[in-house]
Amino acid sequence: MKINLRVSLKIPDAEAATVKNTLRRRMGYGAVLAELGKERLWSIEVDDSVADPADLAGRLARELVNENKESYKATVDSIDFEEGYVPVKVGLRIEDGEAISAQNRLRNRLGFDMVRSVERSMVWKLYLRTEEPERAAEEIAKGLLINPHKDYYEIMR
Prior knowledge:
Phosphoribosylformylglycinamidine synthase, Mth169, Chain: A, 32% helix, alpha+beta, six-stranded antiparallel beta sheet, PurS-like_sf
Protein backbone atom coordinates (compact mmCIF):
# COMPACT_ATOMS: atom_id res chain seq x y z
CA MET A 1 0.00 0.00 0.00
CA LYS A 2 1.27 3.48 -0.81
CA ILE A 3 0.46 6.59 1.20
CA ASN A 4 0.89 9.80 -0.78
CA LEU A 5 1.31 13.12 1.00
CA ARG A 6 0.96 16.20 -1.22
CA VAL A 7 2.58 19.05 0.71
CA SER A 8 2.12 22.69 -0.27
CA LEU A 9 3.29 25.93 1.31
CA LYS A 10 0.84 28.20 3.14
CA ILE A 11 3.30 31.07 2.72
CA PRO A 12 4.44 32.58 -0.60
CA ASP A 13 6.69 30.23 -2.56
CA ALA A 14 9.78 32.08 -3.80
CA GLU A 15 10.98 29.17 -5.95
CA ALA A 16 7.63 28.88 -7.75
CA ALA A 17 7.58 32.66 -8.31
CA THR A 18 11.09 32.54 -9.80
CA VAL A 19 10.19 29.64 -12.11
CA LYS A 20 7.01 31.42 -13.23
CA ASN A 21 8.89 34.65 -13.98
CA THR A 22 11.63 32.78 -15.84
CA LEU A 23 9.10 30.94 -18.00
CA ARG A 24 7.13 34.10 -18.75
CA ARG A 25 9.88 36.68 -19.17
CA ARG A 26 12.89 34.74 -20.43
CA MET A 27 11.54 31.61 -22.10
CA GLY A 28 8.59 33.03 -24.05
CA TYR A 29 5.68 31.40 -22.21
CA GLY A 30 4.01 34.69 -21.23
CA ALA A 31 0.91 34.05 -23.34
CA VAL A 32 0.76 30.33 -22.52
CA LEU A 33 1.46 30.16 -18.77
CA ALA A 34 -1.51 31.49 -16.78
CA GLU A 35 -0.27 30.39 -13.35
CA LEU A 36 2.14 27.99 -11.71
CA GLY A 37 2.17 26.17 -8.38
CA LYS A 38 4.33 23.59 -6.66
CA GLU A 39 3.85 20.73 -4.20
CA ARG A 40 6.24 18.27 -2.60
CA LEU A 41 5.10 14.68 -2.94
CA TRP A 42 6.06 12.04 -0.38
CA SER A 43 5.15 8.53 -1.56
CA ILE A 44 5.53 6.11 1.32
CA GLU A 45 5.23 2.38 0.71
CA VAL A 46 3.89 0.62 3.82
CA ASP A 47 2.91 -2.94 4.74
CA ASP A 48 -0.51 -4.01 3.50
CA SER A 49 -1.34 -5.10 7.04
CA VAL A 50 -1.86 -1.48 8.19
CA ALA A 51 -5.37 -1.37 9.66
CA ASP A 52 -6.08 2.37 9.35
CA PRO A 53 -4.11 4.00 6.51
CA ALA A 54 -5.74 7.41 7.07
CA ASP A 55 -4.59 7.45 10.70
CA LEU A 56 -1.09 6.35 9.67
CA ALA A 57 -0.99 9.08 7.01
CA GLY A 58 -1.73 11.67 9.69
CA ARG A 59 0.98 10.31 11.96
CA LEU A 60 3.53 10.28 9.12
CA ALA A 61 2.53 13.82 8.13
CA ARG A 62 3.30 15.04 11.66
CA GLU A 63 6.90 13.97 11.01
CA LEU A 64 7.27 15.13 7.39
CA VAL A 65 5.17 18.31 7.26
CA ASN A 66 5.91 21.60 9.03
CA GLU A 67 2.35 22.57 9.97
CA ASN A 68 3.43 26.17 10.71
CA LYS A 69 4.06 26.85 7.04
CA GLU A 70 2.76 23.82 5.12
CA SER A 71 -0.51 22.01 4.53
CA TYR A 72 -1.01 18.53 3.11
CA LYS A 73 -3.48 16.20 1.43
CA ALA A 74 -3.16 12.48 2.01
CA THR A 75 -4.35 9.71 -0.31
CA VAL A 76 -3.86 5.96 -0.31
CA ASP A 77 -2.70 4.08 -3.45
CA SER A 78 -3.69 6.86 -5.87
CA ILE A 79 -3.11 10.54 -6.44
CA ASP A 80 -6.08 12.57 -7.58
CA PHE A 81 -5.31 15.99 -8.99
CA GLU A 82 -7.83 18.76 -9.39
CA GLU A 83 -8.88 19.96 -12.85
CA GLY A 84 -7.49 23.07 -14.50
CA TYR A 85 -3.75 22.38 -14.57
CA VAL A 86 -1.23 19.90 -15.88
CA PRO A 87 0.62 18.19 -13.02
CA VAL A 88 4.27 17.46 -13.85
CA LYS A 89 6.05 15.18 -11.38
CA VAL A 90 9.81 15.70 -11.18
CA GLY A 91 11.92 13.18 -9.29
CA LEU A 92 15.48 11.99 -9.01
CA ARG A 93 16.84 9.11 -11.08
CA ILE A 94 19.82 8.99 -8.77
CA GLU A 95 19.81 8.07 -5.09
CA ASP A 96 17.82 10.59 -3.05
CA GLY A 97 19.58 11.24 0.24
CA GLU A 98 16.67 13.17 1.74
CA ALA A 99 14.23 10.31 1.03
CA ILE A 100 16.67 7.75 2.47
CA SER A 101 17.16 9.90 5.57
CA ALA A 102 13.39 10.28 6.02
CA GLN A 103 12.90 6.52 5.67
CA ASN A 104 15.62 5.79 8.23
CA ARG A 105 14.21 8.37 10.64
CA LEU A 106 10.66 7.00 10.31
CA ARG A 107 11.71 3.35 10.71
CA ASN A 108 14.65 3.45 13.09
CA ARG A 109 14.17 6.51 15.29
CA LEU A 110 10.39 6.88 15.34
CA GLY A 111 9.34 3.22 15.25
CA PHE A 112 7.29 3.15 12.03
CA ASP A 113 8.34 -0.44 11.25
CA MET A 114 5.62 -0.74 8.60
CA VAL A 115 7.41 1.74 6.29
CA ARG A 116 9.08 -0.14 3.42
CA SER A 117 10.30 2.73 1.26
CA VAL A 118 10.06 6.51 0.88
CA GLU A 119 10.17 8.48 -2.37
CA ARG A 120 10.29 12.25 -2.63
CA SER A 121 9.42 14.28 -5.71
CA MET A 122 8.08 17.66 -6.74
CA VAL A 123 4.80 18.24 -8.56
CA TRP A 124 4.67 21.39 -10.65
CA LYS A 125 1.12 22.55 -11.35
CA LEU A 126 1.11 24.27 -14.74
CA TYR A 127 -2.01 26.28 -15.58
CA LEU A 128 -1.68 26.59 -19.35
CA ARG A 129 -3.65 28.49 -22.02
CA THR A 130 -3.06 26.38 -25.11
CA GLU A 131 -4.77 23.79 -27.28
CA GLU A 132 -2.00 21.29 -26.47
CA PRO A 133 -1.31 21.68 -22.73
CA GLU A 134 0.53 18.38 -22.34
CA ARG A 135 2.93 19.19 -25.17
CA ALA A 136 3.63 22.61 -23.62
CA ALA A 137 4.11 20.96 -20.20
CA GLU A 138 6.66 18.56 -21.72
CA GLU A 139 8.55 21.47 -23.30
CA ILE A 140 8.59 23.33 -19.98
CA ALA A 141 9.72 20.23 -18.07
CA LYS A 142 12.56 19.53 -20.49
CA GLY A 143 13.52 23.20 -20.83
CA LEU A 144 13.57 24.27 -17.19
CA LEU A 145 12.14 21.91 -14.58
CA ILE A 146 14.57 18.99 -14.89
CA ASN A 147 18.27 18.39 -15.10
CA PRO A 148 18.41 15.52 -17.64
CA HIS A 149 21.53 14.08 -15.98
CA LYS A 150 19.79 13.35 -12.69
CA ASP A 151 16.02 13.99 -12.96
CA TYR A 152 13.04 12.43 -14.66
CA TYR A 153 9.59 13.89 -15.23
CA GLU A 154 6.14 12.46 -15.66
CA ILE A 155 2.92 14.13 -16.80
CA MET A 156 0.46 12.91 -14.15
CA ARG A 157 -2.83 13.01 -16.11
